[in-house]
Write a structure and sequence with these properties.
By secondary structure, the chain is of the alpha/beta class. The protein has 25 helices and 30 strands. The chain has a 7-stranded mixed β-sheet with strand order 9-8-11-10-12-13-14, sandwiched between helices. Strands 20, 25, 26, 27, 28, 29 and 30 form a 7-stranded antiparallel β-sheet that branches. A 5-stranded parallel β-sheet has the order 2-1-5-6-7, sandwiched between helices. The chain is flat.
Length: about 725
């Protein structure tokens, strides 16, 4: 349920302009003009101790002097003055304040301290903050524009954005696309108080919002966002564009898991887990949201193509394949229906090419579309080519039949509960037939790539909605977090554990590990090697040496002189770091046959504990074939992780090798998830390599980093600040 105070903020009956000005060049003046001319019917109260009247309105010295209740304040004073404004709001019942000023956490330490101060004051006086460092907010359907952007089209898409410039660009884009528009906009700014997740229930309950879009640079509480998004998504789709796609933003950590956990890689994976659809480009954000908000979700990945040219048909099939979508065979019955209305030269297999069969009669498009929409093998229909432009391309006499056809095709969406997407070379001409389609919720795109990405989003969204109840709820239960295993093994110690201690902790939680013995002397190493059948691996054991192979701390295929190998390994470790604590040498049987994987967990700054699985063992960072999901993992989440890897042929048994038992890998992933949930002090966990051969799955090595006793958090989350000003 949406918070009542947030409803007063996003749909206020009254607004105070703190920093109101008689100077038309000042934002404090322009805000009043925008509200008056935009049709806002609520009360407007200018606030400025140096003014008496602005545009015929009484000016108040402070918010506390306003005689009527005030829902929202737009604060346009410089950053150092904001604390005094909030101090004045004590006992006013002000619901919220939009703090436009820059100079807070996005700047320097002094700015961070100022930001903490205003947050403390806001909480003390029960005032919620949007921003600071925000471009403002808009409620299009109420005429509430606290940004000042002109001619923003009204519609059914809510936008939460951490970039004022990008918001303006999206407003401009929507102006040029009939049918696209906004219900709300919030520049979340530094997210110092009101967070991304807190807006979601309001938009989900808003009758004039059909989809939510996000531009995200960072989240102050990504875990809370995942929890709320999971609840909202089945009824109100969410589409996200994550900024920071380069490797520059990746965190530097000691494990393979940590080094692979780039900001975007983790964010997009856990977004998908929660049902949030990610896009890679800004020009995909609004089309995808518009389609998800207006069309039924696709039941699967099978797409039928109806094209009026061989080139369009071929390119459409290629574009769909690039998105991982299927172009299935049509049933014999469907092909027979198509032959009845199309010329002999037409292709009635998928993709369907009408081969001129519609050139003088566009109504044939409907006959074909109706036949395809009824096909049980089809989940989505893509109409590609020139539709909408027949009256322009061939003859004006075709305009009216084409318009009738658009009405008929639009009816197929509801009749078959089937999404239809149109790609047309005449989209920019904005013919009336396209307006009919858009009015029915059918998106019309000029770009084939955008059209096919839209279809992929419909399939992704539909797949999630069908399986949402089998995925994680993202709630790490406090009752399970008892740290008993770590307490028994390492007590209050923190930092990097030795492999021996990491193994001890994991083995007590049913995580499958290769057998190993700790030798603390050369003779013990010999005895341990004798107890294993065949060659052994010997590895130095030290909490101060994480990457053992980098210091010649690993010996493989040892068949002779294990005592000498023991001494060589200890000597190499001491040469590398004379101060390193060397606990001994771990002796274990060699394992060679199987697929090498990496399984791990990292405590992400924004989303908390996140699991990873990757292909390649020590080469995982070269191959970059990895998948992430947030803990706790369900078995469905674990299966999704495996399915997300590119190396499916390797798992299925390439070149005659035995297929990997995926359920055994699922067992391992779930066991790791349960271990970390029960031991929240784990900051990083790396099982590398994990060897999978048939039904045998074992971790050959384990590395773990733990936080001090009593701690379950790797640190304060960063302020999710942008570097942009309020009016950039």
């Amino acid at each position: 349920m949406a918070d009542e105070r947030l409803e007063r903020i996003l749909d206020p009956d009254s607004v105070a302009i703190v920093g109101a000005s008689a100077d038309p060049e000042k934002r404090g003046h322009q805000a009043i003009v925008t509200l008056e001319e935009g049709g806002y019917e609520g009360d407007i109260y200018p606030v400025n101790p140096s003014e008496d009247e602005i545009r015929g309105r009484t000016v108040y010295e402070a918010v506390s002097d306003i005689p009527e209740p005030v829902d929202l304040a737009l604060v346009v004073v410089p950053a150092p003055i904001v604390p005094s404004v909030l101090e004045d709001c004590a006992d006013t019942d002000l619901a919220g304040a939009v703090v436009v000023a820059v100079g807070f956490g996005e700047t320097d330490d002094e700015g961070e301290e100022l930001e903490r101060r205003i947050v403390d004051l806001a909480r003390e006086h029960d005032v919620r903050l949007i921003g600071p460092n925000t471009s403002g907010m808009i409620n299009l359907h109420e005429g509430l524009n606290l940004v000042g952007a002109e001619n923003v089209p009204a519609g059914d898409i809510a936008l939460l954005c951490q970039s004022g410039n990008l918001a303006i660009a999206l407003f401009m884009e929507a102006m040029g696309v009939p049918g696209l528009g906004f219900s709300h906009y919030v520049g979340v700014g530094n997210e110092s108080d009101l967070r991304f997740d807190e807006y979601l229930p309001f938009y989900a309950e808003d009758e004039r919002t059909d989809a939510i879009t996000l531009y995200v640079e960072g989240m102050s509480d990504g875990r809370a966002f995942l929890q709320r998004a999971r609840e909202v998504v089945p009824d109100t789709p969410i589409v996200a564009l994550k900024g920071g796609r380069s490797a520059v933003g990746k965190q530097s950590t000691s494990s393979h898991t940590g080094s692979m956990a780039g900001d975007v890689a983790v964010a997009e994976a856990v977004f998908e887990q929660a049902g949030v659809v990610s896009v890679e480009r800004a020009d995909e954000l609004l089309p995808t949201a518009g389609a998800l908000g207006s069309l039924p979700a696709a039941d699967g990945e099978n797409v039928a193509i109806l094209a009026d040219g061989g080139g369009h048909a071929t390119l459409a099939a290629d574009a769909l394949a690039e998105q991982g979508l299927s172009v299935p065979d049509l049933t014999v019955e469907t092909q027979d229906r198509l032959r009845e209305v199309l010329p002999d030269a037409a292709s009635v297999v998928n993709p369907v090419d009408v081969a001129g069969g519609t050139d003088d009669d566009p109504t044939v498009f409907y006959d074909c579309a109706a036949a395809i929409a009824a096909d049980p093998n089809v989940d989505t229909l893509l109409l590609s080519g020139l539709f909408g432009g027949y009256g322009i391309r061939f003859s004006e006499a075709l305009t009216e039949p084409e318009l009738d056809t658009a009405h008929d095709i639009a009816g197929l969406v509801e009749e078959h509960d089937l999404p239809i997407v149109v790609q047309s070379a005449y989209e920019s001409a904005d013919p009336e037939a396209h307006a009919v389609l858009r009015e029915a919720g059918i998106p019309v795109q000029e770009s084939l790539e955008v059209a096919t990405r839209t279809i992929a989003a419909l399939a992704t969204y539909g797949e999630h909605c069908a399986r949402a109840d089998r995925k994680s709820d993202f709630r790490l239960e406090p009752g399970a977090a008892d740290d008993t295993v770590l307490g028994a093994v390492v007590g209050g110690r923190s930092g990097d554990l030795s492999e021996y201690d990491a193994r001890e902790a994991l083995s007590r939680h049913d995580v499958p590990l290769t057998p190993a013995e700790l030798a603390t002397g050369a003779e013990e190493a010999t005895a341990a090697a004798d107890r294993f059948d065949g060659p052994v691996a010997m590895k130095i054991v030290s909490p101060d040496i994480v990457h053992k192979s980098d210091v010649d701390g690993v010996a493989l295929d040892v068949t002779e002189a294990p005592a000498e190998t023991y001494r060589d390994l200890v000597g190499a470790a001491q040469s590398h770091d004379p101060d390193a604590t060397v606990e001994g040498v771990l002796v274990s049987p060699m394992r060679e046959d199987g697929v090498e994987l990496v399984v791990g967990v990292v405590d992400d700054d924004q989303f908390g504990h996140v699991a990873m699985v990757g292909v390649g063992g020590v080469f995982v960072e070269v191959l970059e074939d990895v998948a992430f999901r947030a803990l706790p993992l369900t078995r469905a989440d674990a299966r999704d992780m495996l399915a997300a890897l590119d190396a499916q042929e390797l798992l299925d048994g390439a070149r005659g090798t035995e297929p990997v038992d995926r359920e055994a890998l699922v067992d391992l992933l779930v066991a790791v998830s349960e271990f970390v949930e029960a031991n929240p002090r784990v900051a990083e966990l790396d099982l590398n390599p994990v060897l999978a051969s048939g039904s045998d799955v074992e971790a050959l090595d384990a590395a773990m980093t733990v936080l001090p006793a009593g701690s379950t958090d790797s640190g304060e989350p960063p302020v999710a600040a942008t570097e942009e000003s309020d009016d950039d």
